Amino acid sequence: MKRSLDRKTRIALEPRKQPRQQRSSKVVDRILDAALILTREQGTRTPTTLAIAQRAGLSVGSVYQYFPNKEAILLDLARRWLSSFPQVIQKRINAPRPTNREEFRREVRKLFIDTSRLYLDNATLMPVIEAISGNADLRPIQDEYDKDIIALYAAWLQHVNPALEDKVASRLGVLMMEVGHVCRLVGLKRDRRTYDLIEDDVEAMWLALVSPHLNLE
Fold it and tell me: What Pfam families does the annotation carry (predicted)?
């Protein structure tokens, strides 16, 4: 571990006790669920470990068995948030192949509804996500999920147009992920009406970007 890391980052990256039994896994889920509820309730204020323990109905000592501090809890929440996107995109891959632009537009709308909900329900986690992106030691956590998401976007486009080349599908997947994420982060820092308008703009950009490659009428 690099000496240049600050103390909080070093502690957050230290190994924690891994749940080996179903009972332990349920305890970890209770801790993470309590932390997520508190982050939503408290907005910009980070919940204390004591508050998380109390909301989870546990002692502080029980929480410390699994997480060294609140930063480690938030980091695990971020991982959980990142891991929710692949299954949302996979739903569109599993859906019947759209045969025209209007059907594809409806599929895009369904995806935007699902992914937008993930952003809005977890808006208080965005500072954690941004911190991961800006930290060279934590960035690989996000990079791993990003690669999966790009691959799924590419697979979705090739589901719509099986003739689409891998290289083109991957390039479009990168743009879909990056533009969607950055614009939503901007929107979340504004009011809800602005967020919705930005969401509509991103959807229009997506459609303009990928439609020429899908051979849909």
Answer: TetR_N
Q: What is the DSSP letter of 21?
A: S
First-to-last alpha carbon distance for the chain, in angstroms, is 54
DSSP for 160-179, please give it: H-TTS-HHHHHHHHHHHHHH
Output helix, strand, coil percentages for the chain, rounded to the nearest 5. Answer: 75, 0, 25
Q: State how far the Cα of 166 lies from the Cα of 145, in Å rounded to an integer.
A: 19
User: Per residue, what are the HEC states of 43-71?
Assistant: CCCCCCHHHHHHHHCCCHHHHHHHCCCHH
With a cut of 70, which residues of the chain have pLDDT below it? 1-23, 43-45
pLDDT at 214: 95
pLDDT of residue 2: 39
> Rounded CA gap, 89 and 111, in Å?
7
Residue 211 confidence (pLDDT): 95
Label residues 162-192 b or e (16+ Cβ within 10 Å = b): eebeeeebbebbeebbeebbebbbebbeeee
